[in-house]
Amino acid sequence: MQVIQNQKQANKPIKTYINSCYPSLTKSEQKVADLVLEKMENVMYYSVTDLADMVGVGETTVLRFCRKIGYKAYQEFKLAIAKDQSNAQGEQQENDDENGKHETFISAIAANSISAIQETASMLDEAALEKAIEWIEKARSVHFFGVGTSGLTALDAKNRFLRIGRRTDAVIDSHIQAMTASTLTNEDVVIGLTVSGSTKDTIDSLKIARENGAHIISITYYARSPITKISDIVLLSGGKESPMEGGSLAAKIGQLFVIDLLCTGLALRTKDFSLSMKERTARSVLDKIY
Amino acid sequence: MQVIQNQKQANKPIKTYINSCYPSLTKSEQKVADLVLEKMENVMYYSVTDLADMVGVGETTVLRFCRKIGYKAYQEFKLAIAKDQSNAQGEQQENDDENGKHETFISAIAANSISAIQETASMLDEAALEKAIEWIEKARSVHFFGVGTSGLTALDAKNRFLRIGRRTDAVIDSHIQAMTASTLTNEDVVIGLTVSGSTKDTIDSLKIARENGAHIISITYYARSPITKISDIVLLSGGKESPMEGGSLAAKIGQLFVIDLLCTGLALRTKDFSLSMKERTARSVLDKIY
DNA sequence: ATTTTTTTGAAGAATTTATTCATATTCCCA
DNA sequence: TGGGAATATGAATAAATTCTTCAAAAAAAT
Lengths: 290, 290
Prior knowledge:
Two copies of one chain form a homodimer.
Chain A: H1 14-21, H2 27-38, H3 40-43, H4 48-55, H5 59-68, H6 74-98, H7 105-123, H8 126-138, E1 141-145, H9 149-163, E2 169-171, H10 174-182, E3 188-193, H11 200-211, E4 215-220, H12 226-229, E5 233-236, H13 249-269, H14 271-284
Parallel strand pairs in A: 1-2, 1-3, 3-4, 4-5
The structure holds a DNA duplex.
Organism (chains A, B): Fictibacillus barbaricus
Domain SIS (chains A, B): 132-272
InterPro entries (chains A, B): Homeodomain-like_sf, HTH_RpiR, RpiR-like, RpiR-like_SIS, SIS_dom, SIS_dom_sf, WH-like_DNA-bd_sf
């Protein structure tokens, strides 16, 4: 096994080493140096033999060259070049990014999604979250109300809670929402989902639930929208979404993030139970996979 | 199979490749993977023999491991690690700077979600994405197949595409999937969703679709899982998820991100149409809000 | 219980890396 | 300008590493 001794500290470009040694290299070695400098990006894929042949010198000369510029062996030299190149490339890329020239829609979407999460985290009222989790824990039943895109999020929410053994219900049909709401009492919790905070169907259903005494938690982007007036707890989800871009990824991620916080928060409070339920639900789908 | 996956050019973290192949590795190979992940900074100084001895397996197994995660030879793998490490070092420092905050479960979940997005972006094969978008554009019909948690994602996908005026279908019942698949032809595209890449129902349905000539695109975390063998295009979604934590937020976000890329990519290609459709769908829900 | 398939590493072939040493070249001084 | 010391060079060869083949062992399927 080879030992690494020459801990070349910082990532100084190899070019520097070569240049600083250049005058002390022999003629043949300089030819090696020339080719290495010229083909910097590719050298790392050559073997000593390749390199020697390309330059037109013996392998020994190449070896001697490597040692003179400060590496113990050819392998070490090659490794150093590899690192070096990746740094160089990295810088190249950074520059491109800053110039905004290489900004593909991919990185734009990524940035957008990430900021939805950060936004949500920063807007979060931890006290409200705590309280919401407490209510959910104590509630006889928990219903997620949402229609349209937020209805899908309601289904996701139900799925998440089921995984930790908490049976909740997602109601995504406005009529059934209304009917369900009318059966609730102050032992129940309803979680309303709507990004705009203005979705008629959901709000109407929440009103009914509220009239029957149920606790209302809402997850919305708009802190001063109709839904907040009829909610006991408001959790804000990030990911700005204009009416024109309904169902955007950012908004969805914001909602999911809040739901995950509720779910994880609850799981932490009921650790043993949640864990065993996670295990059970996981095992239950085990024979569904190849 | 006309696979267009794993174009290994940019500086994508090797960790990612290893993780995404992990389940498809044999027991001995996984031992290799474990040690590589653990000793990432040093592996580049080991020879195959060293590494094999340290893990306690034959050199051949190490070689096989390298090939499975996508490198042609040990040298190439080592070179890649070297590049990777020099990048990682830089980032490490950046992260250290930020670590002044108190780490609640909130920031932990946020970090987890963010890295799911970053991971997905970094694993993304742009050529495959392009091709997928092209296929979707030309297809007579596009069906999303998924069951369980991935079924919900299929519904999200349908919703997203509908917003830009592309009627697609989400099929989340395995029987109906099978029946639907049997009606498809080579003019149709099916997009299979499964994080594990091993979901029986989905895979069985995809097989039927494939037999009938349909184009298969799959979105999965695991690069070498059963689903990839029957797919024409594989798009990897980030957000590692052990069997124990099915339906995790990170995995869901990874899937959604990929779907958004497809959707946005398509929208960019058919700009005018998509815009007008966005407007129409948005207006259609306008009288649903207060 | 038996066959088939997969997994595995030992043996050795092929390649790559490193060393030795004889020859070639350069340099210095008479 | 010639002769000898010093240096430079690569062919030959040794050492090491990488890679392949193949048969045995383990696991999976029947």
